[in-house]
Amino acid sequence: MSGSHQPGNVPPLALSLGDPAGIGPELIAEAWFQRRSLGLAPFVVFGGATILHDAARSRGLDVPIVAVDSIGAVDSALFERGIPVLSHEDADYTPGQPSLAGAQLALHSLTEACRAVHESEASALVTLPVAKSQLALAGFGHPGQTEFLAQQCGVSERDAVMMLAGPSLRAVPLTVHCPLAEVPRRLTVELIIHKARIVARALRADFGIDRPRLALAGLNPHAGENGQMGSEEIRIIAPAIAALREEGIDATGPHPGDALFTRRARETYDVALAMYHDQALIPLKALDFDEGVNVTLGLPIVRTSPDHGTAFAIAGEGIADPGATFAALRMASECAARRARLQV
Fold first, then answer.
1. Cα–Cα distance, 162 to 174 (Å, whole number)
2. Rounded to an integer, what distance in angstroms lies between the CA atom of residue 283 and that of residue 298?
3. What is the C-alpha to C-alpha distance for residues 110 and 336, in angstroms, rounded to an integer?
4. Number of neighbours of residue 228 by Cβ within 10 angstroms
5. Angle at CA of residue 244, ends 256 and 154, nearest 5°
6. Residues 13 and 149 in one domain
7. Could you give the CA distance from residue 17 to residue 12 in angstroms, rounded to a whole number?
8. Whole-structure pTM over 0.90, yes or no?
9. What is the Cα–Cα distance from 219 to 265, expressed in whole angstroms?
């Protein structure tokens, strides 16, 4: 382990920089600038000292950068002096203009930040937005950061579950980055049971919910209308729910997707399990866009990310809303603290 922490002290959060041309660096700077009013835990950023300095200036912020040689050097006192940055990796800062050099820095930052958390040098990982097309040019062969982090942690991709969480809703898409036409073929009883178990376990361990309530959406309009509008609910979703309930997991459904996310319905469950990507993300973003957090469940580490993209079009203009980044930092700290208590 690099450096050391006194007993009882919580290691800092590890932040990956994200694409330097996006809004990630300026949101990191904003988070540090508002650290006291927000009560944020100390964090360390992997690389990009010049980028962070310039990004802070783009928002009119005076944010010192503190180069550190080890994560163990980062404590509350040092964090008060400025943003701790580990690694001398850097790149030119040109807001809104992604580059190969920037993508390479983003990938290196992500890799090293993940390693630090996996080796318990840092308490949790917060990843800032990347551009998948740019990362592909840098040799990144994964659909997204979630799949990459699973590999880095030695976990099967099928065991890494994406949950979107905000003040109004938690939602999990059971199928993610695939064409809508493929969803019925990908849905199986086993898939639903497997991912629901991971979700229930994570809500207990990381979110402190003793008996999580899982509400499963139907795939078809009106949840299939008793087979009149599709048979997936009868053949796949309902049997999976029955099996989960036999295991003692509080699972209900299949619920019609057009009614599952109303205010009254949301009071009846802790997480909604959706059958496809947009069924989960549209309501989450409609309700909690500026506070939405992407949480990866099923990893041996805590990982969160603001639930938005690089926003190249507004990078450097000082208008990007930092709310989701603040929420991702808070959630990472809270989940890491719960895991730490369970290990005592």
1. 8
2. 23
3. 19
4. 10
5. 105
6. yes
7. 15
8. yes
9. 17
Kindly give, in sequence order, each residue whose CB lies less than 8 Å from that of residue 175, ignoring residues fewer than 6 positions away. 182, 183, 186, 187, 275, 276, 277
* pLDDT for residue 166: 96
Q: Is residue 251 within a helix (H) or strand (E), and if so which, with residue range?
A: strand 250-255
CATH number at residue 195: 3.40.718.10
Range of the domain at 125: 1-154+300-344
Using DSSP, state whether 82 is helix, strand or coil. coil
Q: With beta carbons less than 8 A apart as the criterion, state whether 150 and 118 touch.
A: no
Q: If pLDDT is split at 50, 70 and 90, which confidence band does 137 have? A: confident
Q: Are 74 and 84 spatial neighbours (Cβ–Cβ below 8 Å)?
A: yes
Q: What is the mean pLDDT of residues 72-98?
A: 93
Map tokens 């800062």 to a residue: 93
**Cis peptide, bond prior to residue 167, ω within 30 of zero:** no
86: helix, strand or coil:
strand
One domain, residues 112 and 178: no
Same domain, 12 and 64: yes
**Overall number of domains in the chain:** 2
Q: What is the pLDDT of residues 203-240, one digit of tens each?
A: 999 999 999 999 999 999 999 889 999 999 999 999 99
Cβ-based neighbours of 93, under 8 Å, separated by 6 or more: 20, 21, 25, 50, 51, 54, 55
Residue 193, SS3 per DSSP: helix
Of residues 172, 181, 177, the one with CA closest to residue 216: 172
Q: At what angle do helices 189-207 and 323-343 cross, to 10 degrees?
A: 80
Residues 6+ apart with CB under 8 A from 82: 32, 63, 64, 65, 66
Instruction: Read off the pLDDT of residues 314-334 as tens digits, 9 standing for 90 and up.
Output: 999 999 999 999 999 999 999
Could you tell me the two tokens for 19? 């694409």
Name every residue whose Cβ is closer than 8 Å to that of residue 185 and which is 6 or more positions away in sequence. none
What does the alpha-carbon distance between residue 166 and residue 218 come to, in Å, rounded to a whole number?
Answer: 22
